[in-house]
C-alpha cells in the first residue's frame, strides 16, 4: 500500500540523517582531537524508539529482539570508538585516505539531501507534462457525449488536480486510443454471455452532429490528423459511428461490406432504387472524412459498379417502383455507364427490358435484351408486324432506348435462326387458317 511506502521512506530518511550526523561528528572529532571518551559521550546513538511505530512495530517486539537490538547498538558504537582511538593514538591528520573517503561520503549525502528537499515532499512525483489542454472546449464536448451514452468514466472530483493529470495519457493520440479501447470493451462485454442482446452504451441518444464531432475528435486534433495505427483503426471500425445514406449508424468490421459513392453519383438517385439492405452499406458523403475512409480501406464506387455488383442481381426481386428507378437511371446516364464493360456484360444477362405480354394483355414483362428484335429493321418489322411482344415496349421503344439496347444484345439483323423461327411461325399460322376454313 502507498501508506506503507510513505512510512518506509520516512524511516529510511531518518536512517540517512543519522548516518550523516555520525559522519559529521567523526570529522569534527578528527579536527578538534577529542579523546575517545569525549566522543563516546557526545556521539549520537541509534534509538529504535524514534522510528515511526505505525510502520516499524507492526506487532510488539519480543524481549529477545530487544536484547539483540541493544547488542547491535553497542557493537556499532564500540567499533566507532575503537577506530577513533586508533586514529588519535597514531596522530593521524584529516588528509588520510579514510578522511578523503569521509569527505566524498559527505558530498554524496549532501547532494542526495538537496535532491530530497528540492521542492518535493514525501513520495510526490513531478507533475506529468501532457501535450494537450484537457479542459478545452473539444474535450468538454467529448466528455458530455461520453456521459450521455453512459460510457464508464472516472469522476475527477475524487482526485486532486495533479493526481488527475497523472492518470491522463501523455499525448493526444493516447486519449483517442483510451476512449476507443473503453468503448470496445463495453461492446464486447455486453454483447456476450448473460448480457447478450442488451447494450450498455446508449448510442441512440446521439444526434447526427454528435456522431460527426465524435469521429472528428477520435481522428484529429486542432484540424490535424492523428497518426492512427492499424490497431487504432481496427478499434474504430468496431464502433457503430459511421452514418449511411439510410440515416442509421453502423460499424464497418467486415472488409468490402461498406463503401462510399463517387462524387459523380447522385445520392438521391441511387437511394431511389437501392434496397434498404444495401442502403445500410453505403456510407453518407462526408468530405471531412475522405482521408480517414481511405485509411479504413473503405472503397469508393461509381454508379456502374453499384449496378453491376449489387443492384442488377436483385432486379427480379425488386418492387415495381425500384425497377422503374433502375431503368430510368440507366437510360439517363447511359453515355457514362456504357464505358463499363463489366456492366454491359451483366446487362446482357439480366431480364430488365420491357415487352408486351401478348395474347391481348397490355401488361408488360421483363426479358433479356437478346430475346427482342429491333423494330427499326424493316424486314423484322414486316415479319413480326402482328406480334408486338417481339419488340421492346414503352421507354425502350424510343430512339434512346433502342440505341442502348443495341449495345447490350438487341437483335438488329435477320440471321438464320431468326429466319427459321419466322418460317415455323408462318407454318403454324397457315395450319390455323386451314383448320378454320375446314370448320
Termini, distance in Å? 114 Å
Number of helices: 20
- The tally of beta strands, per DSSP, is 8
Secondary-structure-derived class: mainly alpha
> What integer is the average pLDDT?
76
Helicity level:
40-55%
Q: Write down the secondary-structure element order.
A: HHHHHHHHHEEHEEEHHHEHHHHEEHHH
The coarse overall form would be rod-shaped
Poorly predicted sequence stretches spanning 5 or more consecutive residues: 36-41, 43-61, 84-102, 111-122
Radius of gyration: 45 Å
Walk across the major sheet and give the strand order.
1-2
Largest sheet: number of strands, sense, barrel closure = 2 strands, antiparallel
Strand content of the residues, in percent?
A: 5-15%
What do you see in this structure?
With 439 residues, the protein is mainly α. It contains 20 helices and 8 strands. Strands 1-2 form a two-stranded antiparallel ribbon. It has a two-stranded antiparallel sheet with strand order 3-4. Strands 5-6 form a two-stranded parallel ribbon. α11 (267-273) runs antiparallel to α15 and α14 (303-311) runs parallel beside α17. It is rod-shaped and about 145 Å long. 16% of the residues are buried.
Amino acid at each position: 500500500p502507498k501508506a506503507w511506502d510513505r512510512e518506509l521512506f520516512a524511516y529510511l530518511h531518518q536512517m540517512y540523517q543519522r548516518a550523516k550526523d555520525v559522519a559529521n561528528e567523526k570529522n569534527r572529532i578528527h579536527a578538534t582531537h577529542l579523546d575517545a571518551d569525549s566522543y563516546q559521550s557526545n556521539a549520537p546513538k541509534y534509538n529504535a524508539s524514534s522510528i515511526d511505530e505505525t510502520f516499524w512495530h507492526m506487532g510488539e517486539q519480543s524481549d529477545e529482539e530487544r536484547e539483540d537490538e541493544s547488542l547491535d547498538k553497542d557493537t556499532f558504537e564500540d567499533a566507532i570508538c575503537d577506530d577513533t582511538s586508533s586514529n588519535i593514538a597514531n596522530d593521524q591528520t584529516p588528509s588520510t585516505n579514510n578522511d578523503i573517503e569521509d569527505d566524498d561520503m559527505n558530498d554524496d549525502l549532501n547532494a542526495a539531501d538537496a535532491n530530497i528537499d528540492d521542492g518535493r515532499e514525501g513520495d510526490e512525483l513531478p507533475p506529468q507534462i501532457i501535450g494537450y489542454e484537457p479542459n478545452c472546449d473539444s474535450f468538454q464536448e467529448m466528455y458530455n457525449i461520453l456521459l450521455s451514452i453512459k460510457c464508464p468514466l472516472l469522476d475527477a472530483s475524487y482526485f486532486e488536480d495533479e493526481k488527475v493529470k497523472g492518470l491522463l495519457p501523455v499525448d493526444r493520440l493516447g486519449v483517442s486510443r483510451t476512449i476507443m479501447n473503453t468503448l470496445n470493451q463495453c461492446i464486447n462485454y455486453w454483447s456476450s454471455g448473460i448480457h447478450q442482446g442488451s447494450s450498455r452504451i446508449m448510442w441512440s441518444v446521439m444526434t447526427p452532429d454528435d456522431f460527426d464531432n465524435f469521429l472528428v475528435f477520435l481522428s484529429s486534433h486542432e484540424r490535424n490528423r492523428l497518426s492512427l495505427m492499424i490497431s487504432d483503426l481496427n478499434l474504430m471500425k468496431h464502433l457503430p459511428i459511421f452514418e449511411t445514406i439510410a440515416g442509421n449508424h453502423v460499424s464497418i468490421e467486415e472488409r468490402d461490406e461498406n463503401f462510399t459513392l463517387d462524387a459523380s453519383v447522385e445520392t438521391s438517385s441511387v437511394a431511389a432504387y437501392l434496397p434498404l439492405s444495401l442502403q445500410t452499406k453505403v456510407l453518407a458523403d462526408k468530405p471531412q472524412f475522405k482521408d480517414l475512409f481511405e485509411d479504413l480501406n473503405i472503397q469508393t464506387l461509381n454508379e456502374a459498379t453499384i449496378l453491376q455488383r449489387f443492384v442488377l442481381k436483385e432486379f427480379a426481386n425488386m418492387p415495381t417502383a425500384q425497377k422503374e428507378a433502375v431503368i430510368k437511371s440507366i437510360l439517363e446516364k447511359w453515355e457514362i455507364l456504357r464505358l463499363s464493360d463489366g456492366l454491359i456484360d451483366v446487362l446482357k444477362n439480366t431480364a430488365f427490358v420491357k415487352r408486351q405480354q401478348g395474347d391481348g394483355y397490355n401488361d408488360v414483362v421483363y426479358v433479356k435484351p437478346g430475346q427482342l428484335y429491333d423494330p427499326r429493321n424493316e424486314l423484322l418489322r414486316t415479319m413480326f408486324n402482328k406480334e408486338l411482344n417481339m419488340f421492346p415496349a414503352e421507354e425502350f421503344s424510343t430512339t434512346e432506348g433502342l440505341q442502348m439496347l443495341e449495345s447490350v444484345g438487341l437483335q438488329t439483323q435477320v440471321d438464320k435462326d431468326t429466319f427459321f423461327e419466322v418460317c415455323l411461325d408462318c407454318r403454324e399460322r397457315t395450319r390455323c387458317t386451314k383448320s378454320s376454313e375446314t370448320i
